[in-house]
Amino acid sequence: MLDPNNTSTTAMVSAINGLLADHFALYVKTKNFHWHVKGPRFRDLHVLFDEQAIEIRDQIDAIGERARKLGGDTITSIGMIAQHTQVKNQDTTTLTAEDMITELRDDNATMVSRLKAMKDTAEQAGDNATDGLIDDWTDMAEERVWFLNSILQ
Fold first, then answer.
1. Is 126 helix (H, G, I), strand (E, B) or coil?
2. pLDDT for 54-87, tens place per residue?
3. How far apart are alpha carbons 36 and 19 in whole angstroms?
4. Exposure of 104 in the CB half-sphere (CA atoms within 13 A)
5. Helix 97-125 and helix 7-36: axis angle, to 10°?
């Protein structure tokens, strides 16, 4: 465990909690779009959105546990998710399929940016384990961006 009194470690835990909030918010948004997509590509998009939601959901526990391994606390509520996420809220159920794809692509691209910014934080904290995980999480988010962007071409 890293020194929880170290400001670099505190910054790392804070960044991890932002990433955790993004994953929760993006999971809910992706499921929303999975349930509400319509149109001629319904089946393909319905399946893709579900696959992506599952991938995002499956990262949540590892991200939260990483904060705990560093001696920090995790986000604890929906309010904290809303406070820490960079994912834009989306309550409508009537977006076009293209708008859904674009929004998910952009949200995943924002997540990639957050992850890349976390690399310096991990290095400053001397946190090699999180640094390696960030690489894996970045690759997954970049793949989601690639898939969604390819549909829009």
1. coil
2. 999 999 999 999 999 999 999 999 999 999 999 9
3. 25
4. 35
5. 170
pLDDT at 20: 98
CA distances, 129 to each of 111, 136, 139 (Å): 19, 11, 16
Residues of the chain short of pLDDT 50, as ranges, are none
- The pLDDT value recorded for residue 6 is 76
In whole angstroms, how far apart are CA 99 and each of 33, 75, 92, 105, 128? Answer: 10, 30, 11, 10, 38
Q: Which residue has 């977006």 as its token pair?
A: 95
pLDDT of residue 86: 96
What is the number of other CB atoms lying within 10 angstroms of the CB of residue 116? 13
Question: What's residue 4's pLDDT?
Answer: 55
Give 83's Cβ-side CA count (13 Å radius). 10
Residues in the chain: 153
Identify the burial level of 36 via C-beta atoms within 10 angstroms of its C-beta, where 0-12 means exposed, 13-18 middle and 19 or more buried: middle
Using left for φ > 0, alpha for ψ between -120 and 50, and beta otherwise, residue 39 falls in: left
